[in-house]
Amino acid sequence: MRSVTTEAAALLEEATNSASGRAARTIVGGSGHTLRQTLIALASGRELADHENPGEATVHVLRGGVELYSNGSFESAHEGEILVVPDARHGLRALEDSVILLTVAMRN
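Above: the chain's sequence. Below: its structure in token form.
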């Protein structure tokens, strides 16, 4: 069994010490699986640039705060809140040092 809290803290430290300002680790699923859960840490002000949605997805904010943007609209969430990722091109920006759990049900 893995501690998500421990993994999140380690990833956030890695992200804040990285030139890219981000770090990620898939903790469930991955290639060849329908379900994928990935912990993503972003230093304040860093982002995951515009990209397509590979399937139904949610973002659960474990630490900090983030802003999800798509088609000119913005929605923010903070620790303990969940965002539904739109089925459209979108991006995610860290409003402060943040860790999210991205859950995706991949399209077949």
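The chain has one domain: 4-106.
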